[in-house]
Amino acid sequence: MNWRNISLWMDQLDDPLQARPSLQHDIQADVAIIGAGYTGLWTAYYLKRQAPQLRVVIVEAETAGFGASGRNGGWLMGNLLGEDRLMASLPANERKASFDLLHAIPDEVAEVVAREGIDCDLRKGGVLYCAARYPEQEVRLRDYLEHLRELGLGEDDYRWLSPSELAAQLRVTNAYGALYSPHCATIQPARLVRGLARSVEDMGVELYELSPVIDWQPGQVRTAQARVTADWVVPAIEGYAATLSPLGHYQLPVQSLIVATEPLPTDIWAGIGLERGQAFSEFSRQVTYGQRSRDDRLIFGARGGYRFGGRLRSDFNLTEEELGLRRYLMGEIFPQLRNVRFSHSWGGNLGMARCFQPHMLRDSRNRIALSGGYGGEGVGASNLGGRTLADLILGRDSELLRQPWVLSDSPISRLRRWEPEPCRWLGYNAIIRSFVHEDEVLANPRSPAWRRRLAQALAARMESLMG
């Protein structure tokens, strides 16, 4: 199986990418984990760190890193999707403690990769949220900064950069300013997930690949050849929740699509910046994001799509239209790259929870532990999820469990369900179309003021419906 075609990241591996043995015989374990992506591997790692006597078994349908863990944009964020809404009602001291916990995620991962000798190009250069292309972005970004200040986050967490200050780190066309946060690192994500897989095996975790789960229930996971009976089951499948009922009611697969340029020469990078491994995002609802790889490629992604019925996408050969949108957006930000060659293009399925609300849950009655709904921010959030699930399973009392995204003793059915089709498909596409329309109107300097206001109001209204 040519797993190197999954993404640039998998293509760059020195790993021979040979499959581990599949599950052939029934076994008994303390914890059975479905999926060898970040969530499953981090959960196994922290379980074995705290309770090395446990028998932990992971079953993976393909190979470690086949899913979003080997396909993402490489942002290791000290954030959680929707964190501001989740923490808004907390007392100020508790809210600060929760933010501190999130902001420490990149440092926690850095500590682990140093301890385990995992070379994943981790560089903590922070993140730049840029207002560029049209002035309305600056207004929205300054409003967002004011909101962060109201939550108690200060200059050490988010700092406004003038256009000249931004240019010292990143040079984009028509910059109006940016927000800089230090709480983000960039990585080579496939090297992290493959390194974690080797590390947990060294700790005694049993990892079976090419073993797709065909049925699961409390205390049992079954593949076509054998089954694992366990005290605890952890379905760590994120964007693939639709494959294991009833999880598909609570997490929908949506796609994010990414391109990578060929390695760019020194003079081009001298005109762009990003010398310290910073992540960057243009502050539009198109959700563009990127980083400079270790081998001097520009990695650039943008919002993907949703398929009717929550169907997974397996073919990530990007269409001309999909490539064209990313080329257009990248060229608007970096005109010198309008004609650059893309060496790789790829995408992945990620999990989106209703109301954009990630969850970390222990169903004590059915002995199920679940973390997911990261909404495209799972590289860092999965580390937090793995630590949290380990404490939930072990019954430890820790700060991790006293967070508003943790449901310590709740059935899965407590999670909010997505609406039935065709409501989901119609709603998603209407929302995305409003974002595209807004971007087209605002990016055109000849658009009259009334039309600009109308496009923004419609997109803002549609965005509110997603939450």
UniProtKB/TrEMBL annotation:
InterPro entries: FAD-dep_OxRdtase (IPR006076), FAD/NAD-bd_sf (IPR036188)
Residues in the signal sequence: none
UniProt keyword annotations, A-Z: Oxidoreductase
Domain FAD dependent oxidoreductase residues, every copy: 30-392
Cellular component aspect of the GO annotation: cytoplasm
Superkingdom of the source species: Bacteria
GO molecular function: oxidoreductase activity
Pfam families named among the record's database cross-references: DAO (PF01266)
ATP-binding is among the record's keywords: no
Name of the protein this chain belongs to: Glycine/D-amino acid oxidase
Upper classification of the organism: Bacteria, Pseudomonadati, Pseudomonadota, Gammaproteobacteria, Pseudomonadales
